UniProtKB/TrEMBL annotation:
Domain of life: Bacteria
Organism of origin: Paenibacillus plantarum
Keyword check for Oxidoreductase: yes
Gene3D superfamilies tied to this protein: Cytochrome c1, transmembrane anchor, C-terminal (1.20.5.100), NAD(P)-binding Rossmann-like Domain (3.40.50.720)
Pathway: Nucleotide-sugar biosynthesis; UDP-alpha-D-glucuronate biosynthesis; UDP-alpha-D-glucuronate from UDP-alpha-D-glucose: step 1/1
Reaction equation(s) it catalyzes: UDP-alpha-D-glucose + 2 NAD(+) + H2O = UDP-alpha-D-glucuronate + 2 NADH + 3 H(+)
NCBIfam families: NDP-sugDHase
The UDP-glucose/GDP-mannose dehydrogenase C-terminal domain, residue ranges: 310-408
Pfam family, one: UDPG_MGDP_dh_N
Protein name: UDP-glucose 6-dehydrogenase
Amino acid sequence: MRLTIIGTGYVGLVAAVCFAKLGHFVTAVDRIHVIQDLRENKLAIWEPDLQEMLETCLSEGRLSFDTNVANASRGADALMIAVGTPTGVNGQTDLSQVDDVIAQLKQAGGVCPPFIIMKSTVPVGTCDELEANLLTAGLHSEVVFNPEFLRQGSAINDFMNPDRIVFGCRSHLAKAALHQLYKGINAPIQVCDRRSAELIKYASNAFLAMKISFANMIADVCEGYGADNRQVMQGVGADRRIGPHFLREGIGYGGSCFSKDLQSLLTSGKAIGRSLPLLEATAQINEERIPQLLEKLISLWGNPRGKRLGVLGISFKPNTNDMRDAPFLTLLRLCYLYGIEVQIYDPVVLPTSIEGVIQKDTAYEVAAAADALIIMTEWPQFAELDWVLMVQLMHQPILFDGRNVISDETISQLMMVKNMVYIPVGR
Ligand code: UGA
């Protein structure tokens, strides 16, 4: 098939290389400076395997770039929209980037492909509205909703081996086109109406966020009563009705999706007079994680002003350099308020990307002279550090293990260090 993808952010670029790998001819469209960078092989996102796949697809001629929606749409079998849909004013989803694509299609008239596939997460009812909008210009394309469930850091693998694929569409023709597009991927396919498909995406992310906040809530109870949340969640997750995933306690979820999608679903609920209290509690528990952590630290320090906090890992999770909604940013804001100096080490986030923090080249340099250290991201290499040396380098040996990455064996070694304070989560 000839597929045009608008937007080469996280979702668009991963989809572009993966559909090209499946044998389709893909044209990816974005603004000129983004395309220029891509042509020079400069990727704004760091994702395992993406760079190599991009090079292969380009060299084999299955992927090309364009900067003009109309040009790129001419002759395409389908056009996929993968632009950003951030939170706008009053918690409403900002659909201006989607609207802009639709406006360009309307302006270009006859080149509009028969199927417009929405990949961007959009509030329930959006696809109906977009289709009606196209019709006002005499364009009879069917708008289809095909949510993405990729996780950053394992996006290519998630795309090629998904748990399910959802087609929200009206006609048999659209369904057949989507089947052809995903041919070669072995996964259950659910075909449903568009509004249900739009809600599947929001409800999935809301449920995952809810599981994490649930684990964090029980972790607090564990701390209060001397139980171990890892044991509790192992026992809870062993029930097949619950499942073992997304029950890891820690500093709370971050990333561009969970908070944004929760907010959008809350706003959709409000629009029909529903308050969705489960989602409100999920967000609230998450927002309290970092302030709670800092409270513990301040109670150990007494006066926080002038103290030096070392941070290991600042992206919202390992295997990504994405800083959107990273819990570290909340920590940083609070540290400014308290006059705490912040030094960081991150394996992939570039030094230039965060203002006002001192970035070091190694974890050991961050430990040196720190008044406390916190592990914010569970990069596997953090568990492998020489932790006894790390805490010996510190000014005050206080270690917050925000993701419970330090092994029990290392913890017992650390306990031999004089004045050592080791603070895990939920145990
Ligand atoms: C999430 C969903 O997992 C994807 O299915 C979805 O497609 C994507 O949002 C999206 O809507 O685009 P992602 O944001 O990449 O993917 O990251 P996750 O792996 O879900 O992690 C989100 C956050 O939750 C991270 O900060 C992670 O550290 C945290 N987390 C995750 C926990 O604190 N505990 C867990 O048990 C799992």
